[in-house]
Amino acid sequence: MRQRMKCVEVAIVGAGAAGVGVGIALQDLGLNNFVIVDRGRVGESFRRWPREMRFITPSFYSNGFGLLDLNSVSPTTSPAFTLGEQNPTGLQYAAYLEALATYRHLPAETKTNVHSITRDKNGRFLLRTDREDYEAQYLIWGTGEFQYPNRCPFVGSEHCVHTSCVQSWAELSGSEFAIIGGFESGVDAATHLASTADRITLIDRNPIGISDDPDPSGSLVPTSALRLRDLLDRDKLVLRPDFHVVAVERTSDAFVIRSHADDRVTVSSPPLLATGFLGGQTLIQGLFENDPEGFPMLTPQDESVKTQGLFLVGPKVRHEGLLFCFIYKFRQRFAVVAAAIGERLGVDTSDFIDYYREAGMYLDDFSCCGESCEC
């Protein structure tokens, strides 16, 4: 027999970088009646990265000089200092998040599956889980995207393997590979496969590695660009830009990748999908309204325009065409969400906002986000 629902002011779903970060923001505001629920462990998505995969955004303990570590999710911590790593692996970063959750005594209920989310007649959210049920005035969705890959972008996708499903690149056998998707995940996969493969074909519907966009959300970061050039210099890589894949067919001894122009690439190993992620918000898609490009439509406080009281944090946040897909970007919205909730609960948020703004973790003016470089 189930116990009565536990009443909280805020329920956070997801105990990754976004969930832990916004939980700390709520604590810093003085809000402690909340719960963080995750079906895995703290930092579960990072634990599922391929073992060789590392952060492309470097960590550095520059906090004391007014520049917060790019991968920190709170104003007073640095993964570089905690881990002693500049480009941590997924497991290392999960350890940072777990240490942070423990140190801050975050109310995280891990290994807990959320079975359903409904609303009562008063508009409160009712979360049914396999352990305890919760009644929350506000719901923050922070499930991230890595565990929700885009597995079916075209006909025959079932013959492919998404890069997020690879535990280690060393476990893949074969002398030739084709990777569909020429952005960060594709270049990372090609880099690690190059140690054993004779030939790798990198396929993308757009130009590969060529962009004058200074925003890393729209172009390869310098590390990835250098990796790409190194692979080309070593004759390990064949680029197939402007190749719009429409289907993958399996024959008796090969996989044939077809483009809209009926160009073909044939490989002996299952093609790898570096086709991005749909995001965990798709689990509650009925509570969001999407824009024409498929991103959830949000208010200036990152609240769903369709469901009052539901907030989104993490890499699927988008405003005015700006993508918040890196930790150093989406962490700047934690305090915006916390302040919006705090104000509705009657909490004075002025000192809290000043504190987070001074730490570089409060962004509410998008006009300052335009990237421009003189040289």
From TrEMBL:
Its EC number is 1.-.-.-. It is an enzyme of class 1 (oxidoreductase). One of its GO terms (molecular function) is monooxygenase activity. Pfam families: Pyr_redox_3. InterPro entries: Auxin_biosynth/cation_transpt, FAD/NAD-bd_sf. It comes from the Bacteria. The keyword Ribonucleoprotein does not apply. Keywords: Oxidoreductase. PANTHER family: FLAVIN-BINDING MONOOXYGENASE-LIKE PROTEIN (AFU_ORTHOLOGUE AFUA_4G09220), NAD(P)-BINDING DOMAIN-CONTAINING PROTEIN. This is Putative oxidoreductase CzcO.
